[in-house]
Amino acid sequence: MRYMLTHRVLEDDPTSWEPNPELIERMNAFVGKLTARGVLLGAEGVQRTGAVVRRRGTAIRSVDGPFAEAKEVVGGFLIVSAADLAEATAVAEEYITCFAGVEEMSVEVRQVAEMEDVEPYLGG
110-114: long-range contacts (C-beta < 8 A, 24 or more apart)? Predict the structure, then answer.
């Protein structure tokens, strides 16, 4: 099964957005380890700014980031292959240790919906 591990950081914490050499070294080692184990399917960080597109009824509105209404924002993600949620959560617990020095953050673990998960809803 595929799982997405999304790390969330405080939007206004500079240590979350300005990686130091130690963080980069830890992250490279972690990514190398996951690659060697054959579980890493993708990994990316994201830039601090962006946009939010909202729909309310039929009205669609875009707002530039940063995202003032959120305390935590997505800082990046991994896509991993894991047997179950427990295994994916163990990877997330290892992943979060890469961010030593970041005072507050979280990693959300969600199973990726595969086609067989949505086929019952296709009505055919």
Answer: 110/3, 110/4, 110/6, 111/1, 111/2, 111/3, 111/85, 112/1, 112/2, 112/3, 112/4, 112/79, 114/1, 114/2
